[in-house]
Design a protein that fits this description.
about 475 residues; single chain; elongated; about 15% helix; about 30% strand; 28 strands; SH3 type barrels
Length: about 475
């Protein structure tokens, strides 16, 4: 028999620096609390006998790994494969009883699964009970530890969870869900789009529920196949990048083909025979084209107008004096007649995740009936007013205007903007770190520098010069804007 070292107290045992190494067992120690193995110290001429505690090793076997399939409650009850490992359990782990009646005081617990509550040198106390009501405490030799693997069983098929960026068309499982955002812990979804490595899913099967995921929220599901074809996660990093680029290129090509198809009929329906014009029509056309061309609006002006329209849109949808409501399917599947007089709307704005959730409650029963979600796409500047309008329209089953989904980014920094430090190029000695985030409190007259208040990073919050930092305009990018300037 062989064992693999899995742990040891530092500077106490001879095997403290040999974690992961495999040794051949000569015999079990007296009392069954460990094993005696052979090992030759550097410089010695022959092997010597050394003791390894049972709690610091696991038995190695050449036989295929034995697994137990159980629901994983941390993933919403999805079936997961657990490896059966012969070792001492730790508190919180699940174990499977392997001893029969003759060892278990005549009681039949073989094959049952329990959670360990405490351990000592000889027993593991569990959440199970003996027939007399006392705590089930099997000896360490009477069970195997169930170690969770990366293999899930979904609809009878086996999938491996892989931590990497998903590609369009792949399936993912949610492993770190945020409450109230339309998707569930353990939910399995297909990736519909990809934007700057952030994959998009449609939790309810329609684009109106689209959510962009961050990588810590999901794992990619790769089918476990018997074929020798390597999975994407097993390929070199350069090959993985090439695979993802190929998937994106195919998607772009498909979109270009759709655009060309949409444009073609417009060009073809012009009949040259119908182009002849009367004198009055020619004079009218000349009059129209002789008018001065109005100045084009800047991207900033367009953005400001869309924000104002979004604010007015929300106000209208929440107006209790609206003449009539409309029917919509609620969260429980029943159809309700929404009207602001009978329902109240709560907006949950999460600026860290750049999302807005609209929750529609019935005023009399105080029951949640509808929900809509809006998440700012990567690279866009977050605005809570636009997010409220999108989330509310999705909650009410209304079409979201295209202008809400394609708002131009701001062209100039304004007081109140939330900005991120992206470079030190223009001021290498600046008292800030790349990735710091803060709010603009002042813009200088030359519009070359801004004063940022309260810069923070993900790991810490700190202040420099009383929380105020002067930053070159070229070193920042706007990530959030709340209001429109007067």
């Amino acid at each position: 028999m062989k064992i693999r070292i899995t742990g040891a107290q530092r500077e106490t045992y001879w095997y403290a620096d040999k974690i992961g190494e495999v040794f051949t067992v000569i015999r079990e120690s007296s009392g069954g609390y460990g094993f005696i193995v052979a090992y030759r110290e550097p410089g010695d001429c022959e092997d010597a006998d050394y003791y390894v505690s049972i709690e610091d090793c696991e038995i190695v076997t050449d036989e295929p790994a034995v697994v137990t399939v159980l629901p994983d409650e941390s993933l919403g009850g999805v079936l997961r494969e657990y490896r059966e490992v012969k070792r001492k359990a730790a508190v919180g782990e699940r174990i499977k009883i392997t001893a029969d009646r003759s060892t278990m005081l005549g009681e039949d617990f073989k094959g049952t699964v329990h959670t360990v509550k405490s351990v000592d040198c000889s027993n593991a106390d569990t959440d199970g009970k003996w027939s007399d009501g006392s705590t089930l405490n099997p000896d360490h030799d009477d069970y195997v530890v169930l170690e969770p693997s990366d293999i899930l069983v979904i609809d009878g098929a086996r999938y491996r969870m892989v931590d990497r960026v998903a590609a369009v068309g792949e399936r993912v499982i949610i492993t770190n869900a945020e409450l109230g955002y339309g998707y569930k812990q353990g939910g399995v979804y297909v990736i519909m789009a990809l934007d700057c490595d952030d994959p998009c899913i449609w939790p309810d099967g329609t684009y109106m529920s689209e959510i962009y995921l961050e990588q810590q929220e999901y794992r990619v599901l790769e089918p476990v196949e018997t074929a020798a074809t390597p999975q994407l996660s097993e390929l070199p990093a350069s090959d993985q990048i090439a695979e993802n680029i190929a998937a994106l290129a195919a998607r772009v090509s498909g979109l270009e083909a759709k655009v060309a198809e949409m444009m073609r009929p417009v060009n073809e329906r012009v009949n040259p025979a119908e182009l002849s014009m009367s004198k009055s029509e020619v004079e009218a056309a000349i009059e129209v084209f002789s008018q001065p061309i109005p100045p084009q609006k800047t991207a900033q002006q367009i953005r400001d107008e869309i924000v104002e329209r979004a604010k007015a849109d929300v106000k209208t949808l929440l107006d209790t004096q609206s003449p009539i409501g409309h029917d919509i399917e609620a969260l429980d599947g029943a159809y309700i007649n929404y009207h602001p007089h009978n329902h109240r709307v709560e907006f949950v704005v999460n600026r860290d995740k750049r999302t807005v959730v609209a929750l529609v409650w019935h005023r009399r029963t105080d029951k949640l009936r509808l929900r809509g979600i809006a998440k700012c796409a990567p690279g866009d500047v977050f605005n809570a007013h636009i997010g409220r309008a999108i989330a509310l329209r999705r909650a009410l089953g209304l079409e979201v205007p295209a202008e809400y989904l394609s708002v131009p980014n701001p062209e100039e920094v304004r007081v109140g903007d939330v900005v991120e430090i992206i470079s030190h190029a223009a001021n290498p000695s600046g008292f800030y770190d790349i990735g710091d985030i803060g709010r603009v409190v002042c813009v200088d007259e030359e519009r070359e520098c801004v004063t940022v208040e309260g810069t923070t990073t993900k790991e810490r919050r700190r202040s420099r010069n009383g929380y105020l930092q002067i930053v070159n305009m070229r070193n920042i990018r706007i990530i959030s804007r709340e209001e429109v300037a007067a």
